[in-house]
Amino acid sequence: MLDYKLLEALAAVVECGGFERAGDALGLSQSAVSQRIKALEVRLGQPVLVRAPALAPTPAGQRLLNHIQQVQLLERDLRRALPTLDSASPRLRIAVNADSLATWWAEAVGPLCREEGLLIDLVVEDQDVGLRRLRDGDVAACLCASPQPIAGARCVALGTMTYHPLATPAYRRRHFPAGPTPEAFRHAPAIVYGPHDQLQHRFLAQCGYRGAFPFHLCPSSEGFVALARAGMGYGMVPLMQAEPWVARGELASIAPGQVLEVPLYWHFWRHSGELIERLTAALGTVALR
Amino acid sequence: MLDYKLLEALAAVVECGGFERAGDALGLSQSAVSQRIKALEVRLGQPVLVRAPALAPTPAGQRLLNHIQQVQLLERDLRRALPTLDSASPRLRIAVNADSLATWWAEAVGPLCREEGLLIDLVVEDQDVGLRRLRDGDVAACLCASPQPIAGARCVALGTMTYHPLATPAYRRRHFPAGPTPEAFRHAPAIVYGPHDQLQHRFLAQCGYRGAFPFHLCPSSEGFVALARAGMGYGMVPLMQAEPWVARGELASIAPGQVLEVPLYWHFWRHSGELIERLTAALGTVALR
Questions:
Q1: Based on the number of CB atoms within 10 Å of its own CB, is B117 exposed (0-12), middle (13-18) or buried (19 or more)?
Q2: Where's the HTH lysR-type domain (chains A, B) (predicted)?
Q3: Mean pLDDT, to the nearest integer, of A268-284?
Q4: Which residues, numbered 6 to 65 in chain A, qualify as contacts with chain B under a Cβ-Cβ cut-off of 8 Å?
Q5: Which of A20, B15, B71, B231 is a good FRET partner for A257, with 20 to 30 A between their CA atoms?
Q6: Which residues of A72-90 are buried (b: 16+ CB within 10 A; e: fewer)?
Q7: Residues of A with Cβ-Cβ distance to B113 under 8 angstroms
Q8: Averaged pLDDT, A198-205
Q9: Chain B contact set for A229 (CB, 8 A)
Q10: Nearest residue on chain B to A231, alpha-carbon basis
Q11: pLDDT digit string, tens, across residues B64-88
């Protein structure tokens, strides 16, 4: 089966007469369109477009265009026979950091999705990986801690989430009997989300500790809290997520007063249409803590 | 015999997330660590680490890491027999399916980890991917729904988890006013874990429906439940996970009596040492539901 995303990009560039306008039409960045054309040319082993004197399809490109037009005609007939196909809900592919997804995300976007019949295709990525996916045109928007805007995209600050170093009271008594001392940090097992997670290192640096420390790796927000609740380690957890257990005294800070503020930013392509604007407005109303 | 000083340097660089911190942990200079990694790569004829976008082991490097973990496990047994050998915490890399990690996993393994100072390196994978990682030597054990044993590994049945098709009562009234009919399934947004997740399809087939249906994609256990709680769709959730919300009436089945039983199996290499045996015994005591 051909990759119709690549063919669709080619058709849009020819129809719209340019990469940027094609990007607008497809809800993609100019560079994402350009990458799709390149991918198509690599696959084909020859160019599909000539850039000068004017943008135009090569003979091979024209063959592909004819093919996609035929497919579009067939789809049109198919839709007539199966009318429910046509009313397909829009689907939005979005990269979201795990902790937001585990806490406030669904509540914030739920009402709009319900009203509009909007379907979401979530990709769970922390930090730079999500932004790279946006740059590559793989997702339409990205929620992450990076304030670095991408050319062609807008970046909206949503506030900060506050992370506390939490463990069970029994764990704290056993591993931090004298509080957060270097000696305790050297031996107390921590919980770290993954190899790229810097929160634990930032927390220890903030406490003045820069040595080695033992840790579990757990790339799941809920699993992370489950490990902490099972007394396996202490870890940086958003208070928004841990509140029920903190309120019941099942989790407590091993270093009261030491917290990390993690800012969150919402990145999305300009000219992505009205739905993304409304989603952005919905996210803007969230009271992060 | 391999040069374990080189392997130890590799393990330290990956665990500490950098050459300088690895040097601190090993009591070596950064350049000594770097030389050991280079020596290892020369010996192997290929890189063991990628430096960009982030420091991470190559597939070959990950194999070496897994090997050194297994050696450390065996050393741990040896140290018990010869207590004068100095002790360091072993670390075990394990693939676990997301729903187990979100529910019973930590509680089951927590006591043993606490007693033995065992550190866990979790990889969240569903189904066949986890087994492939075990076969590739990337993990020491794997918890998944596949009963297919791997040559050289043992496979222990742990029981089954029961999945119910859950949504908010408001969602059920809106989308399933006449119960689980084909017409309702055709239009009601479902929630699916990922492109390889077959639970939703199995559930619909069990209800006699085989047509298309709209769905959100959400590759996170806690996010999955959050989407359902926000009224964005209905989805197959383990009752173990949803129980608090079901008890409070915030989530309910859209097709009472229709459930899916998903068996769980624990796969691990034979001759992995006594710790894996005890872990297996601890998992065997879990009462899955």
A1: middle
A2: 2-58
A3: 83
A4: none
A5: B15
A6: eeeeeeeeeeeeeeeeeee
A7: 189, 216, 230, 232
A8: 93
A9: 106-107
A10: B110
A11: 887 777 777 777 766 666 655 444 5
Give the residue from B143, B280, B277 showing the smallest Cα distance to B134.
B143
Q: Structurally, what CATH architecture does the domain formed by A91-160+263-284 represent?
A: 3-Layer(aba) Sandwich (3.40)
Instruction: Tell me which chain B residues have a C-beta less than 8 angstroms from the C-beta of A197.
Output: none
B1-88 CATH: 1.10.10.10
Closest residue by Cα to residue A286 from A238, A221, A225: A238
Tell if the CB–CB gap between A114 and B231 is shorter than 8 Å.
Answer: yes
Computed over every residue of chain B, the mean pLDDT equals 87
Asked if the model's pLDDT at residue A90 lies above 70, the reply is no
- H helix intervals, chain B: 4-16, 19-26, 30-44, 59-81, 98-102, 105-116, 128-135, 169-175, 182-187, 199-206, 221-229, 239-247, 274-284
Mean pLDDT for B188-206 is 90
The arrangement of secondary structure in B161-259, i.e. its CATH architecture, is 3-Layer(aba) Sandwich (3.40)
Q: Please give the C-alpha separations between residue B258 and each of A13, A27, B90, B236, in angstroms, as whole numbers.
A: 49, 40, 44, 10
pLDDT in tens, B34-69: 989 988 888 777 888 988 778 888 888 888 887 777
Q: Would you tell me which residues 139-178 of chain B have a C-beta closer than 8 angstroms to some C-beta of chain A?
A: none
Q: Are A98 and B220 inside 8 Å of each other by CB?
A: yes
Six-digit token string for A216: 């579990």
Residue of B54, B122, B218 lying closest to A196 (CB–CB): B54
For chain A, give every domain's residue range: 4-84, 91-160+263-284, 161-259
How close is the nearest chain A Cα to the Cα of B207, in Å?
21
For the cut 60, the answer to whether the pLDDT of residue B281 exceeds it is: yes
Residue A234 pLDDT level (bands cut at 50, 70, 90): very high
Same fold, A4-84 and A161-259: no
**ipTM (interface pTM):** 0.72
CATH class of segment(s) A4-84: mainly alpha
Across chain A, mean pLDDT equals: 87
* Res. B278: pLDDT tops 50: yes
- Residues of chain B with pLDDT > 90, as a percent, come to 49
pLDDT confidence bin for A258, thresholds 50/70/90: very high
What's the pLDDT at B87?
45
Contact A114 B232 (CB under 8 A): yes
* Nearest-neighbour CA in chain A from B250: distance (Å): 14
Strands B190-192 and B215-217, how do they pair?
Answer: parallel
A107 touching chain B per CB within 8 A: yes
Q: Contact at 8 Å (CB) between A172 and A228?
A: no
CA distance B14 to chain A (A): 8
Q: Is B78 on the interface with A (CB under 8 A)?
A: no
> Which residue type sits at A168?
T
Query: Residue A54 carries which side chain, given as an amino acid letter?
Result: A
